[in-house]
Amino acid sequence: MAANSRSSRPEAGEKAVKPLPTVLIQDQDSGFDRLLHERSRLAIISALAANETLSFNDLKTALHISDGNLSVHARKLEDAGYLTCSKGFEGRVPRTEYRLTSQGRTALHGYIGHMEALIKAMKKI
Fold first, then answer.
1. Please, which residues bridge with residue 100 across strands?
2. Which fold has domain 30-124?
3. Which of 6, 81, 95, 125 has the CB geometry, 3.0–4.6 Å to 90, for a possible disulfide?
4. Where are the domains of the chain?
5. How far apart are CA 30 and CA 59, in angstroms?
6. Residue 26: CA count within 13 A, CB half-sphere
7. pLDDT digits (tens, 9 = 90+) for 35-56
8. C-alpha pair distances (Å), 86 with each of 21, 26, 89, 111
């Protein structure tokens, strides 16, 4: 189709492009959360959804990510209110524990709902 053309009909030699389902093009209020869409952050939230609390080392080991990556991604999730971080000591060893907040659980459920709707819409195409 010509770049300046507003017609929805294809020009000669071009094939028609089907319109995308709205679930594919909506971001706001659709359940799609760009913060959770990043692989490491989604993994952190998912691990915390399955466990009441996890330590920094437990998450690092389970997700196979570096200290720096885990720290940066956990901080972004904490800033968004999706998880809480508590720091303390176990004997003389520092211990950082993470817990999923109700806001984080709600965000995860919304994200999963959006992905399910996306998959359902794609199966219809």
1. 83
2. Arc Repressor Mutant, subunit A (1.10.10)
3. 95
4. 30-124
5. 29
6. 14
7. 999 999 999 999 999 999 999 9
8. 42, 35, 10, 26
